[in-house]
Design goal:
With 318 residues, the chain is an alpha/beta fold. The protein has one domain. Helix content is 41%, strand content 20%. Strands 1, 2, 3, 5, 7, 8, 9 and 10 form an eight-stranded mixed β-sheet that branches. Strands 4-6 form a two-stranded antiparallel ribbon. The longest helix has 19 residues. The protein is globular, with a radius of gyration of 19 Å.
Length: 318
């Protein structure tokens, strides 16, 4: 296998991790908008997709905003939006999210950090870490923006809804997990995926794209988007049959915070988490909280046709 192919697999694994993990503050210790359906009988929806034209031309890599309702006898209806995130994306993607976040009574967000931690304006940090270095590298390579630098986490309705570093690493120890095991699982799944369905873009084109600052980023985005739009196998490998700290255990914490916000009287809640978290959250919303999925919207995170006008894409009619 060529060095470029190995590099592609490495990049796919790294970007896939961006669907589940944003930022760990501390190191480890020493096309119809409304889809009215009986959601309990429906298949689990996707929360990230590739939108294509009829001729196969890629249009965008989209993330979902899925709306759930809980009707309560004699009480106001509770509305909860699961808002999928990719942690590097086009600027207009984060601009649209920032504007939407204003409508919520409470916007729950992910951040493995001590309780009460607030992300500084523009996501600036005094310390550097391997995770942030990789994110900055991918941001520059693909000419995208970094979520923490674009979203206004200082907004008054933002509520931290994630583990503390101590809780995170303790859970990983209990599950016999480690960052290395997690990364190797992603790499193995990426290798298997490449063997089963090789990329349509050959290695020579990818290598040339890395050094072509004018057209290369779009070529690389299209190649990476194709993989991310079909990454269920990789994410299943990451999560495992018994769940994982990075996905299911953090989801439990986020939904416990949702419960607290509902008890506090909040009626319209958004949960802004990496798109890979939302499959498990969806199941919990239906089965544990007895909510109903009432609609799904799609927001382009990566435009893949050059200078196209960004729009919110509705769920395709069935």
């Amino acid at each position: 296998m060529s060095i470029v192919r190995w590099s592609r697999i490495l990049v796919i694994a790294v970007i896939s991790l961006f669907l589940v993990q944003n930022w760990i503050v501390a190191k480890p210790p020493v096309q119809k908008t409304e889809v009215e359906t009986d959601s309990r009988k429906a298949e689990t929806p996707r929360f990230i997709r590739i939108l294509k034209q009829d001729d196969g031309q890629l249009l965008s890599l989209d993330t979902a905003i899925a709306t759930y309702e809980l009707k309560r006898k004699g009480k106001p209806t509770i509305t909860v939006d699961l808002i999928g995130a990719v942690h590097i994306g086009d600027k207009h993607y984060y601009d649209k999210l920032d504007e939407r976040f204003k409508i919520y009574d409470a916007l729950l967000y992910e951040l493995v950090a001590p309780q009460g931690t607030r992300i500084p304006a523009n996501g600036k940090r005094e310390d550097a870490s391997p995770v942030s270095a990789i994110q900055q590298f991918m941001k520059n390579l693909l000419q995208l923006e970094f979520q923490l630098e674009q979203i206004d986490y200082q907004a008054k309705n933002f509520v931290h809804a994630d583990m503390s570093p101590e809780e995170f690493w303790e859970s990983m120890q209990q599950k016999n997990e480690s960052p290395l095991k997690m990364f190797l699982a992603m790499m193995r799944a990426s290798l298997a995926q490449q063997a089963e369905k090789p990329s349509q873009i050959n290695d020579a084109v990818l290598l040339a794209a890395i050094f072509d600052r004018q057209n290369g980023p779009m070529v690389l985005k299209r190649a990476m988007a194709e993989e991310l739009g079909n990454n269920d196998v990789m994410l299943d490998a990451l999560n495992g049959p018994d769940g994982s700290t990075i996905l299911t255990e953090r989801n439990k914490v986020a939904l416990k915070v949702m419960e607290e916000q509902i008890k506090a009287g909040k009626k319209k809640i958004g949960i802004f988490y990496g798109a890979a978290h939302l499959k498990d959250m969806h199941e919990r919303m239906l089965n544990q909280y007895k909510m109903k999925l009432v609609k799904t919207e799609w927001l382009p995170a990566w435009e893949l046709m050059g200078n196209t006008t960004p729009t919110t894409q509705p769920e395709p009619s069935k």
